[in-house]
Amino acid sequence: MTEGTTRGTAENTAENTAETETETEDETEAMAQETTGDTSGDTSDGGAVEDAAEDLSDDAADDPTNRTRRHTALPKAQILIEALPWLTRHHGRTVVIKFGGNAMIDEDLKAAFAQDVVFLRHAGLKPVVVHGGGPQISAALDRHGIVSEFKAGLRVTTEDAMDVVRMVLAGQVQRELVGLLNQHGPLAVGLTGEDAHTITATRHRPFVGGEQIDIGRVGEITAIDTGAIRALLEDGRVPVVSSIARSQDDGHVYNVNADTAAAALAAALGAETLMVLTDVEGLYEDWPHSDEVISRLTASQLEKLLPELSSGMVPKMEGCLHAVRNGVTTARVIDGRVPHSILLEIFTDEGIGTMVVPDGQGEA
């Protein structure tokens, strides 16, 4: 093929390609005009896309799924509204909480308990936590070769056992609980009944079978000094109190039942509520023949039931009775195995557990 022929063929090919590209551009422009309503072309369908967009928007607004998506927070709002009257009622009031049972040994329950207490504090209440440490004390006594023994529902506490009790309550259980609370801010401060003479006691000698027995370094509370606790509350702190008492008469310390200590502190502080966490749903109507829980009863009704209760429930219910007969508005035994049981009891209409009220506030 000659050079001229080759050049001519190339020129023809270039012209054909240019024509094809021009036709393609014309077709693309026409399609764009039809789609967008370009004012440079036929304007009879101008704004079609805008109309379509409005139609799609209307359809989306009418879509029930879309409406539901926009209101998924409504249940949260309803919960807050239900809590409003309870928040108003308890605002600025002191709430004493006895921490115990499974809530002390289950990691998730411990974390939920700490969240509940911090929530109370930020909701305007003044929580005070009182704790024992039964499971931890028993484990520590086992490690030291000391047998755990209970009489009249109370731990027999020898001199050697008292050293272990003091170490576990103030050095282990309290520090862990303070640490959990302080994960949410600089709130919790730990102290024992020995500090600032908060709890004073003498030796407790209960009656078993009509006879008074000696159960060692177990204290019967004789005095409460609330000065240190009130100062902490006024400073916005959460006092965490170990149930150890100073002796009134012999220079020693005493192991005080935590239920009893919580009740005494609630009364001395003029608390709105005493809450006792336990491992049952509440006080049963006719245990073991029935598992129906008594939701509410008066002090006199509770007093009549006390002789029939199991030994483990006696200190808890005696504490509730003492509290409501000494100025506390309500005392509640609640199931600490339920996560966030404190919030459920205080801020919902249903509540859980058993509530004890002073005489004259209605029958069960």
Secondary-structure blueprint of this entry?
Blueprint: H1 3-36, H2 48-62, H3 64-70, H4 74-90, E1 94-99, H5 107-122, E2 126-131, H6 134-143, E3 150-151, E4 154-155, H7 159-182, E5 188-192, E6 199-203, E7 207-208, E8 211-212, E9 219-224, H8 227-234, E10 238-242, E11 244-247, E12 253-255, H9 258-269, E13 273-278, E14 296-298, H10 299-305, H11 314-324, E15 330-335, H12 341-347, E16 354-357
Parallel strand pairs: 1-2, 1-13, 2-10, 5-10, 6-11, 13-15, 14-16
Antiparallel strand pairs: 3-4, 6-9, 7-8, 11-12, 15-16
How much of the sequence lies in strands comes to 15-25%
Task: Give the biggest beta sheet.
Answer: 8 strands, mixed
Beta strands, count: 16
Poorly predicted runs are 1-49
Number of helices: 12
Q: Compute the average pLDDT.
A: 82
Share in helix: 40-55%
Structural class: alpha/beta
Q: How are strands sequenced across the largest beta sheet?
A: 5-10-2-1-13-15-16-14
How do the helices and strands follow one another from N- to C-terminus?
HHHHEHEHEEHEEEEEHEEEHEEHHEHE
Q: Between the first and last Cα atoms, what is the distance in angstroms?
A: 115 Å
- Overall shape: it is globular
Instruction: Please compute the radius of gyration using only Cα atoms.
Output: 36 Å
